[in-house]
What does this fold into?
Amino acid sequence: MKNKYDKDFLIYLLEKMMVVRKFEEKIQALFSDGVLHGTTHLGIGEEGTAVGATMALENQDYIFATHRGHGQVIGKGADVNAVMAEMFGKKTGVSLGLGGSMHLADIEKGIFGTNGIVGANLAIACGTAFSIKTKKEKDKIAVAFFGDGATNEGVVHESMNIASVWNLPILFVLVNNGYSVSKKLFEMTKNTNLLERAKIYDMKAYEVDGNNALEVFETVKKAREEILKENAPILIVANTYRLSGHSKSDNNLYRNQEEIEKWQNKDPIKALIGVIGCSKDEIVALENNVDNIIKEAVDFAKNSPEPTIEDILDRVYAK
Amino acid sequence: MRKITYANAIKEGISEEMRKDNSVFIMGEDIGVYGGAFGVTKGMIEELSKERVIDTPVSETAFMGLAIGSAMTGLKPIVELMFSDFMAVCYDQIINQAAKMHFAFNKKVPMVIRTASGAGTGASFQHSQSLEQMYANVPGLKVVMPATPYDAKGLIKSAIKDDNPVVFLESKEFYNDEGEVPLEEYYIPLGKADLKREGKDISIITYGRMVKTVLETANQLEKEGISVEVLDLRSLVPLDTDAIIETAKKTGRVLIVHEAVKFAGFGGEILSTIVESDAFNYLKTNIKRLGLGYHPIPFNKSLEKEVFPTIEKITKQVKEMM
Ligand SMILES: Cc1ncc(C[n+]2csc(CCOP(=O)(O)OP(=O)(O)O)c2C)c(N)n1
Ligand SMILES: [Mg+2]
It folds into this structure.
């Protein structure tokens, strides 16, 4: 698979994943130190899916991220400094510091935000796909990310049905990390073959190893072409795992260390490094570079101004 | 007296009722081994079994409706909704179904919807709202908002015993706050306000998260020679109109403080209760209200504090009214 791509591209993909990883590790540390407030959902271990999928998209495509969306948003091209500033609640943040981790948006880049309400993003994504179709925009799709837990929300069924029967240009990316907070997939859903969800909508579906960024990338690219050609939505089920806890307040009581270690061995970043065959020096250089990006982002965030009450009032209604 | 947290007080109240009555059960997202998003149900599954402390899929509409159906057929469900904002996801079941079942079928619906309400934890605008006025506006529902561990325990026990759907709004900022709770069993009837502090110059009528801020303000104002009476409504439906009227008559000055958006908020109802009664004739100055401005709740830490009634804002308002 790797021979199809030049090394520069592979390194670029790897670097993006490393940025997401180190971004999340940094905010995890900042939360522990009490620098950041509120809560956050880290996707450490899910970078293969988040970055692999978003890098297969075009600038003009729309994405609707989940609550666990730092990787999805950065993968689609959100400015790391501005995302970090949002985590700090600063005015230079992607949502003016008024939203935080669950509300990271950059409409110019087609990023219609992470979302705090599980499943809600699918319906809105259908709306943007409807718009693309109505306006006959070429070479453009909408993408909605959602989790295995979200599949049990009514809105997910309703959205997939309407997308299918109205032939909307939308890609549903199901990030199956096997857990809905503390509950395993089989405890919450009888049929754990999530690919079969597509059947009842007569929708095409692909399953991928979500920890294999290249496989995710290729499948999303292919699905994108097919959606455009066949005028029909597609479901991709990406199987992955979150190594981090569900949110800031998670004691991991619902899973064992053995399972976590098993997945640590399938770390998507290590996997991609293996595929590329990076030398030690190359990795060190990459890591240094990424460390600098993150350090710069933190400095930027720290030195940014706070939003004001006027900023809030200004944003409630369109004028 | 021993002190326990607001979260543990609620857990104690629920556990006591569950031990006494096998028809009571609790369900919600991650309330089992995980112990709930705010730790309220921690340890309950071990004591009371997974048949009665039930983890649900992320399917709010289904489990809210399921609660209604089970309540109409002999069980007494307690539903934990992780955040009160998520009620919007299952609004139909609450507004059109639960609230209407007794009217439609003359059938009791003894259920409790427990949920974390309000701001103060940096959870941003989809996880911080105070939506109580929306439920108070739907006949058929009861609406309870405890502000102390003592009240929380006594009220949850009465809510569970009640034969109607009760929306029980817990202030998420309070979960780890400790307060005195006696070991002996007790109930607090729904619809009884509590005079949290006696005073003679001005009455502040409040409920929920603002009770704490208002009491702190009252203590400060005492030192400046202003004697503040603080009435905690504890429940909005039923509403203790007698207590509201009585305190208004007593001090002749009324300030209403709540966390919810001020415009079209519950404060308007409190104010009307006073001016429509003979207490109106006792007023020495206009009634005032403090609440959230007309905007969503910002994530930014200092703004999240500033946009709500603060000690400074309440103090300033009180002084203007003296
Ligand atoms: C409507 C709604 N219900 C519940 C929640 C609380 N919640 C946040 S994330 C989550 C689990 C979702 O699981 P999944 O879709 O698999 O995503 P993951 O967290 O695994 O990334 C829950 C229940 C929410 N945010 N919105
Ligand atoms: Mg999941």
Chain B is about 35% helix and 20% strand.
